[in-house]
Amino acid sequence: MDFRTKRLRITHRGVVLVVAIVLTATAAGTDVAQAQMVNPYAGIDWENVRTLHSFSHQHGSDPRVFWNMGFGHLPISNYYPSRPFYPLPEKFLKEHPEALGAPNAEQHSTTDSGMHFCAVGSLYTAGYGRTPRFKAGQAPIEHVFSGLHVFDGDKSPWLGVYRLDLRIAQAARTDQEAEVLLTIEGAEAVSHKTFAPVGDGLVRRQRVTSKSPESMYLKTTAADVRVRLEFDPASTRIDRFRLMQGTNRPWKDAFRAALDGTGKDSAGRPIEGLLFPDGGGITINHPGGSLKSLLEALDFDRRVLGIEVWNQHEGFGGTEMRFYRLWDEALRSGRQCLGFFVKDHVFFGRGRNVLLVSSLATASPREREHEALRGYRDGRFFGLLGALKTDESGQPVSPYDKSEFRFTRIAVKHNGDRRPTGIEVSVDGADRTKRPNTQIRFITDAGVAKVVDDASALFEFPQDAAGVATCRFVRVEAFAYPSTHLGGRPLTPEALSAMNVHEISRLHDRQGPFRMSDLDPSGTAPIPIVDMIFSQPILLQKDRDSHPLARIIHDPGVLAADCAILHPGSR
Is the distance from CB of 76 to CB of 85 less than 8 angstroms? Predict the structure, then answer.
């Protein structure tokens, strides 16, 4: 394969890396260095591997919508309640027998963290969700929420704690303040962290205004909870009224339940734990915490896979790209942290995890579902942000962001001593009539290490005098893009290389008559014109004592016992 480049630039700007590679060099010798290298793409037969479009975080109730978007793997992740949408409906599977499902749900409301997470491949079920129906202008509103768990402080106390959401607003054409008198029977108001009563816990015609907190936590004293809202419809509008439930337990306990829990429902069906012990894991959604809290989560269990680098609501984490930057910060620490790309609630937005699979045609649906979940566990996938498809009016149309742009090779090169010396990458599949140009970037802990304007590239790891790689990780990103933007303004390789991934994600020819993210008001969303793909990392670590797996190197017995940590394919 010819890896000559048309143009080559080396920069120091912080840029998103489509392929991340972590290689650990140690004084224990070449074999240990080989064992330390975490390469999710090792062993892939690139000539025969197939792509399977998937999502790790997506809300919805109709699998046909996602099938029509080009997704073949549908681990739908609803909450309120957080209950797996699995197996897929029988009628849908009869129409699309090749479709694959997986248990999944978004979990939230831990008592010691604001984290939201998904447990792809987990049966973990938590929560209750009811939104009463009522007519606009109806008053008072009274509803009985039934079938609740009664709080038991000794056994599973989290099951008897619920969250009442009440959002009110001032009615149109009035100057009178919005106000509701709230009464609750069958539950007490409590602190979410301690479950201790707020005051005496009683809620009797308690005044609520538009400035009051929207959520109130309740501890049940009965299986039925009656809620009454008294208000004047002329001055007050009810915008949200629902009873919900989250995990209501410390995040570590919630993680344990998702990964290894043994809980069952009243009929004896499992409602906790992974469907396949070697497949799936936990993803941290739209990460808003600190690097310290993220590293604590990653260190909790090797099945905590990583973070969302892209969520359609905030892109790479807003204009500051905090999700994207957090990814590299975690990788600089020596941890393996996979990156996920999701739409979340937005159907026509961007964000896909493209699994690399090789199932035989004779494989059963369960075997193929198993392989897909192993792909998530092992990191055998890449992130895709495809250019958005629209009709003549500018409205997005299905399959929206689906693109065939993909990696066709990610291979680590070695020298005669079996030391890793570099990485070869090639890409293909873009619509060349619309996006004839390609750029590949290699990212290390120092930032953008190399930029190549071609569909294939070679990156040689920087080395010290002893031939040991000096970067902690490498990852790769690639872009297929048109020659113009903004309706005809030139888009040159030099101009693209000066942009960060946030800027590239917003390249467009026109604005869409819709709202696509929190970054834009309605009617001003740019319609993306660039295909972007992001690989998972391959890590390199020079200082063995600073590496979180250093103890394995110092104790060969532990090396044998924990080899699954180092070799994703053996998990």
Answer: yes
Residue 194 identity: T
Using alpha carbons, list the distances in angstroms from residue 18 to 14, 354, 444, 507, 537: 13, 12, 11, 18, 8
- The first and second tokens of residue 496, run together, are 């693209």
**pLDDT tens over the chain, length 571 residues:** 333 333 444 343 333 344 444 443 333 344 444 447 899 999 999 999 999 999 999 999 999 999 999 999 999 999 999 999 999 999 999 999 999 999 999 999 999 999 999 999 999 999 999 999 999 889 999 999 999 999 999 999 999 999 999 999 999 877 889 999 999 999 999 999 999 999 999 999 999 999 999 999 999 999 999 999 999 999 999 999 999 999 999 999 999 999 999 999 989 999 999 999 999 999 999 999 999 999 999 999 999 999 999 999 999 999 999 999 999 999 999 999 999 999 999 999 999 999 999 987 789 999 999 999 999 999 999 999 999 999 988 899 999 999 999 999 999 999 888 889 999 999 999 999 999 999 999 999 999 999 999 999 999 999 988 888 889 999 999 999 999 999 999 999 999 999 999 999 999 999 998 899 999 998 899 999 999 999 999 998 633 333 333 333 233 333 333 333 223 333 2
Return the beta strands (E) in 280-400 as ranges.
281-284, 304-311, 338-342, 352-357, 381-385
- Residue 453: left (phi > 0), alpha (psi -120 to 50), or beta? beta
Token readout for 319 is 């204009």
* CB contact at 8 A, 167 and 226: no
Q: Looking at the domain covering 129-244, what would its CATH class be?
A: mainly beta
Q: Where are the domain boundaries for CATH 2.60.120 in the chain?
A: 129-244
| Phi/psi of residue 271, nearest 5 degrees | -130, 15
CB contact at 8 A, 559 and 35? yes
* Model confidence, pTM: 0.89
